Amino acid sequence: MATILNSRLAKLRALVVDDLQTMRQNIRTQLGQLGIEQVDQAATPDDAIKFIRNANYDVIVCDYNLNKETNGQQMLEFLRSNKMLSPTAMFFMVTAESSYDSVASTAEFQPDAYMVKPLTGGRIADRIERLLDRQHALKPITDRLDRKDLAGAIAECDKVAQSDPKWIVDVLKLKSSAALDLGDIEAARKVYAEALSLRNDLVWAKLGLARCHQAAGKLDEAKVIVESVLEKNNQFIGAYDLLAQIAESQGKDQEALDALNKSYEVIPSARRSRLVGDAAYRVGDLEQALTAFTKAVSHTRGSLTAQASDALSLAQVHVDTREPTLALTVLSVAAKDYQDDPSFPTRQAIIAAQAFAGLGDMESAKAAYESAKEAAGEIRADADSLTLAKAAFCVGLNEEGARMMSKAIKADHENERLVAFARRVLKDTGNEAMIEKIVEESISAGALIVDEATKLMRNGQFDESLEKLEEALVATPDNTGVLLAAAQLHLLWMSQKGLDRSYVERVNGYLAQLDGLMPNSERVAKMYRFLRETLVKVAREA
To answer: Which partner from 193, 231, 431, 445 sits 20 to 30 angstroms from 262, CA to CA?
Structure first.
């Protein structure tokens, strides 16, 4: 029976992950003595993932050394990056090495606590009780965040800081993140500075200041801060990730790749290898991309953490390095593993068409291409559409490939990564001379819509301007330039004619979509500020 002190622990459900049966049973016994009776046990990462997919756990106690392929940190990275854990789930990492805290502190996804063997029930109880106290204190804030009420969450942060100051660092972390997500860069910067005035060793606050600079377009200033963090701790994963983002924004793809390579050296997980492979492919380093995707596939082969994209990317690199037979072999093996993945057959057929063309088997290449085209359906502004266009070029359907590519670019003409990939496709297929006609003209066509809408707006023809942008969004729903213009136009309309709640909902929808398409963009942040300022202005006038 649970003690009075730990009575709330009896309501918790726990999972113990350890490859040694004796250790699992020992921890289960310790938890049982605390009153935690619902305890499941997993011997492997795959077993743990199966349990987590089928139940919500309050406490997960995981050994760091699980097996040769996956350790506890890599499993935590997989669970958190795929959002498989409840926001309130407590993840404890257990290790025989007292130095693990330095490893955990460098990770992007950190456990709620690390515990050195041998474990005792008292130490486990102390950790759980403290985390439950923190959850209870921060609940008014986290409830607001769950409802996407960022402004409300910031207000609750101020209340909790006053009523329960011992959690001030946690409160400031939540408040600064909410302010940055809201697009209020200056407010976020002040909160990060306040946190550093309390403790100058808070790496998350230093990187937060760098993100403020990044969002404001001050990329050099952001880079200086990140590099200063890495000077003191060259193992910090989050700093390398941010450094890669900054480098990519500056058009320095090789620097981005270098940063991701260093992050892989710290935590050589499948996810990190995947990021390296993608970056290497973008800069045209096919040898490194081949190595990275091979590692990603081998890291996860036969595991629930395996992803079809790794095998598909590996096959594509084999095609590009003129190894079509190897590409087809990879696709054949992967087809058995991902037969239930609805998106796999389309990309498989796209790559197979290129591989068959590389072998000179044009009949099979055209059959695979037609299958891919039928399965793909509508052409969208994404890499898959451009890869399908690449397959069209490979089977000799140049006009069709050109139309696909043009449509994809027009759908998101301001997406620099997409445009760069389109140029790469034309170069790889021997159509470099077509870059100006296809890519540049498509970019101009997309920009023309925004220009025409802007002119109508300036002439006071708001309805006509709105109509033009709405038509464009129906045709190209992911076009960032059109989304930004539509948000701006709706806000200008309200600033002159008054509040329209349906327009506010539209603008919020546009900005939410842009957050996904353009993470950490200063243009989007400015639009959020414009929204707030417009609503304040309209309210005052009313």
So the answer is: 193
Q: Are 138 and 167 in contact (CB under 8 A)?
A: yes
**Is the CB of residue 365 less than 8 Å from the CB of residue 351?**
no
26 and 98 share one domain: yes
Q: Looking at the structure, do residues 3 and 106 belong to the same domain, yes or no?
A: yes
Token readout for 434 is 């077509």
pLDDT tens digit sequence for 204-256: 999 999 999 998 889 999 999 999 999 998 888 889 999 999 999 888 999 99
Question: How far apart (Å, rounded) are the C-alpha atoms in residues 324 and 396?
Answer: 17
Examine the pLDDT at 457 and tell me if it is beyond 80: no
- Asked whether residue 35 falls in the same domain as residue 175, the answer is no
- Separation of alpha carbons 17 and 49, rounded Å: 10
| Distance separating alpha carbons of residues 23 and 66, to the nearest angstrom | 12
Q: Report whether 44 contacts 19 (CB < 8 A).
A: yes
Whole-number Cα distances in Å, 175 to 80, 110, 204, 487: 21, 19, 13, 26
Read off the pTM: 0.81
Both structure tokens of 411: 């759908």
State the pLDDT at residue 72.
Answer: 85
288 in any annotated domain: no
| pLDDT, tens digit (0-9, with 9 covering 90-100), for 311-323 | 999 999 999 999 9
Question: 325-334: long-range contacts (C-beta < 8 A, 24 or more apart)?
Answer: 325/355, 325/359, 327/351, 327/352, 327/354, 327/355, 327/358, 328/352, 328/355, 328/356, 331/355, 334/308
Closest-CA residue to 416 (of 448, 378, 381, 376): 381
Residues 6+ apart with CB under 8 A from 333: 311
Phi, psi torsion values for 442, nearest 5 degrees: -65, -40
Tell me if 333 is assigned to some domain.
Answer: no
- CA 123-127-128 angle, to 5 degrees, is 115
155/137 same-domain check: no
* 64 & 189 share domain: no
Please give the residue range of the domain that contains residue 43: 1-146
Residues 126 and 16 in one domain: yes
Does residue 162 sit in the same domain as residue 123? no
Q: Per-residue pLDDT tens for 403-440? A: 999 888 877 777 788 888 999 999 999 999 888 888 88
Is 456 within a domain?
yes
Tokens linked to 379: 């052409």
Compute the mean pLDDT over every residue in the chain, rounded to the nearest whole number.
88
CA distance 523 to 424: 27
Q: Tell me how far apart the alpha carbons of residues 332 and 343 are, in angstroms, rounded to a whole number.
A: 15
Q: Where is the domain boundary, 88, 120, 146?
A: 146
Residue type, 116: V
Q: What angle do the packed helices 501-517 and 480-497 form, to 10 degrees?
A: 150
> Looking at 165, 198, 233, which one is the last position of a domain?
233
Whose CA is closest to 75, among 29, 28, 139, 15? 15
CATH classification at residue 181: 1.25.40.10
